[in-house]
């Protein structure tokens, strides 16, 4: 009964089956039929023509997106708690060849137009200062909050006005959309997003995320950079198959709903302990070390997050029984 | 009946089964039990204590190895036809932050002490010239030739004398060892190799190569660089499982033997056409465009390599029947 | 009567004379007699054996120093207001190949052990987080404050305990030493500094700063990086001559004293307006736009720094008369 | 009587005087009047509107030019003997963030359309191969040969047809123009050159080369990169003054003529020893070690270049007497 992270969850059955079915010989790299079908599938999902590519990890997806939007001598505005700042070992700096991350504030890892404006307010023009070229937000955020289409659009408008490229780290985009019930288009390109890291691994996939270019002109050089970074899998059809399987019949959305529902049930059981509202599949709870120990003694696995605070992450694979058991345990604390 | 490349072959059945078996929840990244077992498995195989890590592609494996051996202001001696020079879109330059590849000559993409010595003869000492820091060879070579332990050792001795790190690109190391019948140790660290890219994808794997550090001191920063490059898979146990499966009962060696045997049978059928001796699983054959067309008309797929020259690559999965059919077709040309 | 910046001041007469005297043909790059004499001169000045090199700008000096102390996948702790963060267009990121600057707090751009400890407190170990490798301070700071030997030593001790390289940006080190009356050794290596950017351009030089390696093992690769960055002047003797001239008879110290004295006189005249204590040669003064205009109307040139705040910088070349005139003008505001 | 290299020659008197005259306080960086006048001066010289900037060294000039023309994932075609390949410690790789130099052949370090075409003939399209983005030639070449306007134009046409940016390393452009008697425009932009490194240091300057952008759109980011590389001198007016002085009354051309004439006289004295025709100010002569010793015994300084080969470089400052003496000594060998 592990609630450490959705990124350690099993691969969902449909994806495993797809790997087996994909095993016929086909063209190498991304010239196979499944890889070539991806652009159409994502264009349909997003209701506009997009360019897409599979990529092994969210870190690589984010770093490639940022390299497409920001030159080596530029900066990228992101939240102080952003995954790209804290959890990627400098991948954005590596892929952009040394761009700077300009850190902005906001409760629950959520940026606002004001906080972004404040972050760049001190940057003078001229060659002495690194100039901002891009804005990156995470949806759902690192603390499980969800930007609405309206909130994204406000940031998108700001970005366009300041000539900033706009990237969305959607490692848990599925959870955000499941929460909002909105269309993928409304939450992304219609709100001004240029490039999207669309996560599948945390949601039941094995080793494939999608990078979606609403600005299709950025795709070509990104494919070059993907190869240059050693991310062009020779048997790429296995990556494509994971993504295409999860797109079929909205498996991605169903999985995310399951995860969100589990989180919501747990939130209800621990409503007085919530550090942030639970909108996606992450819970940050106030819990003393003794309380954390008590939960662990009952077989629940999770991370301590901060002094007096634990993190629980639900996933599509958590059984109703496991969730009910944890909910009960939380109530009894 | 495709002989385009071993890198487009199916995944072998044992590996697919392993993916399914690996699907229980475990720790993320490389903290799972399977990943942690890799060092022991490779240490046993190589008869010495090594550090190892899984990595998605051969390009990434090579580039990480080179970054471990060469600073940004250094150069790496390799063959003019080396994969790292021609087929990786500058990945070595990306990962090393701008090191230079110093190209050496040699028939069949094979380096000798003389050709390496000649490549670095013109390099003056001092800060104006990029100084060589590493030597990289491919075994089996890009033209399907195999370095013997003695040949590798001669290069290893030269490298040590000149203070060059020594990398082996073993995308087809299994084929080389199957050909030689030698121990993996004799062909690598006993011959002076510091870091080895050990290929599994071309030999039946799906998405995992191994990077083997005989100089274990280089592993720690390489793990940092792997993360920084977005190559630390969150569900890394699926990468480890592929490798561990192929190590079990020498599956890697049996697969390579199958591929080599197929190539040998084809070589026998086209002995007058061989551009290079066939030692591993690649054949380069003289064939006129008409002859190539005739083969394709019979359903065989392969690449034109040069004017009047075609390339055939065999793999573990080619059936005896397919190989026999192609052999017959070659004989009838 | 310009008080914009010491970096626009004239070159002092002794330096100009030295350029003329240096004009005999000599060896190229840094093989000339003057360049070769630098190590001895600085070793004498610092009372320990150092390695040194001339370099055209403070930005290049700092960036080379940081590249010597921090790998691409590391971070450098510095003040939020540090020159390396705000005024060098990402030179540290360029030269280190993508290291991160980790920003710490402190009044007047001055770091303390506590503020540095706080900056790195959130960094978890492991490959997901960029690990700190270096600490960089500016003395005198960007706001004209001076670290004492004791303060530097406290930071040096912390750096050593945490295994951080320790860099000092001494663009105005001369002013700091003139203020403290201490020995250069006490303020640098005896307090734990590993590499020092020693500024001469702001203090009467034309185009040469010195990079001082108290850890002499770092000099060799830094000389390679200097060449690689296009900073190895072919007529390097003219760079060396500037530095050697300023070392002769403590010209560097006398010039700095002149500048500090001027600043002190201005500070006395505007004691109620001081935003920071005046310890070196920079003054930050509260002044309304109208007051600033009034000063400008009298022919004084300077920058607005913040709303209601101006900056005045004195230099060795300001005449007593100019300083007296500005002091009088400040008093009359 | 040193003939080692023009890059160790004295600074010419006019330039030294200019430094003294420039010493009034002015704006910092490149906002001073002299720096701002450079674009006009070069636009007049080149008979078209250009953007220009001063830069400390030829290595930095070349590297900035190449970074403007080639992305990190591209390659630059140059001669195997090019300065950018052999003498800049990887500066092009550093500034471009890892672009590859693609080496072409040609007698006397001179490229032809055929040799360039051959160098890129093997590059397949697609993401696996680094694609060529730029062509770089050196005029006069590293062996003292001069490309004519017609030869440059042929390469320029080829470059345009293949969509390659075209860079000229003009460290000795003055010598080339002095030899040809052509207009600077004919040898550069009218022949298709996009960016020119225009050398002054080897021709009497101290520490300033000019980078000339015939494609003016490339200047802005190059100025950012110059700062980021630590090459934006705070007292930039001293750099600008050197260049402007050498442009006045064609001092640059007169100096080059003096150097060329000296080389021509020496060539006449050693006509049977010439390895290459002498077109600029460099001589490569067959000379046995004993002959070299004999010259050195008479006080002449120069470099051995290859077994049985020496290099002599003349400069504007060589006196008629010195040249006559060396000519006589050569005749007497």
From TrEMBL, chains A, B, C, D:
Segments forming domain Aromatic amino acid beta-eliminating lyase/threonine aldolase: 2-272
Organism lineage reads as: Bacteria, Pseudomonadati, Pseudomonadota, Alphaproteobacteria, Sphingomonadales
| Subunit relationships | Homotetramer.
Q: Indicate the family of this protein.
A: Belongs to the threonine aldolase family.
Keywords on this record? Lyase, Pyridoxal phosphate
Which top-level group of life is the source organism from? Bacteria
Task: State the organism of origin.
Answer: Sphingobium subterraneum
The EC number on file is 4.1.2.5
Query: Which InterPro entries does the UniProt entry name for this protein?
Result: ArAA_b-elim_lyase/Thr_aldolase, PyrdxlP-dep_Trfase, PyrdxlP-dep_Trfase_major, PyrdxlP-dep_Trfase_small
UniProt cofactor(s): pyridoxal 5'-phosphate
Question: What's this protein's name?
Answer: Threonine aldolase
């Amino acid at each position: 009964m592990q609630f450490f992270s959705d990124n350690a969850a099993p691969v969902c059955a449909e994806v495993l089956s797809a790997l087996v079915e994909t095993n016929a010989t086909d063209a190498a790299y991304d010239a196979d039929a499944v890889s070539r079908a991806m652009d159409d599938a994502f264009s349909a999902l997003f209701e506009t023509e997009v360019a897409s590519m599979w990529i092994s990890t969210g870190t690589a997806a984010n770093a490639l997106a940022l390299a497409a939007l920001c030159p080596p001598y530029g900066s990228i505005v992101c939240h102080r708690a952003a995954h790209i700042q804290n959890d990627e070992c400098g991948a954005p700096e590596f892929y952009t060849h040394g761009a700077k991350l300009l850190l902005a504030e906001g409760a629950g890892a959520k940026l606002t137009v004001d906080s972004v404006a404040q972050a760049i307010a001190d940057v003078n023009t001229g060659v002495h200062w690194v100039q901002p070229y891009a804005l990156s937000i995470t949806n759902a955020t690192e603390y499980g909050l969800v930007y609405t289409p309206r909130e994204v659009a406000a940031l998108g408008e700001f970005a366009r006005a300041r000539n900033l490229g706009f990237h969305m780290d959607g490692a848990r985009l599925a959870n955000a959309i499941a929460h909002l019930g909105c269309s993928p288009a409304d939450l992304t390109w219609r709100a001004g997003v240029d490039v999207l890291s669309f996560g599948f691994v945390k949601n039941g996939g094995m080793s494939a995320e999608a990078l979606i270019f609403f600005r299709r002109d950025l795709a070509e050089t990104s494919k070059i950079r993907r190869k240059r970074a050693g991310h062009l899998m020779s048997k790429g059809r296995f990556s494509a198959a994971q993504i295409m399987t999860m797109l079929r019949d909205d498996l991605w959305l169903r999985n995310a709903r399951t995860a969100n529902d589990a989180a919501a049930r747990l939130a209800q059981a621990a409503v007085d302990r919530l550090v942030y509202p639970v909108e996606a599949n992450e819970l940050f709870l106030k819990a003393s070390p003794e309380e954390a120990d008590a939960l662990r003694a009952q077989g629940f696995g999770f991370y301590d997050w901060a002094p007096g605070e634990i993190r629980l992450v639900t996933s599509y694979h958590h059984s109703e029984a496991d969730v009910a058991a944890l909910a009960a345990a939380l109530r009894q604390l």
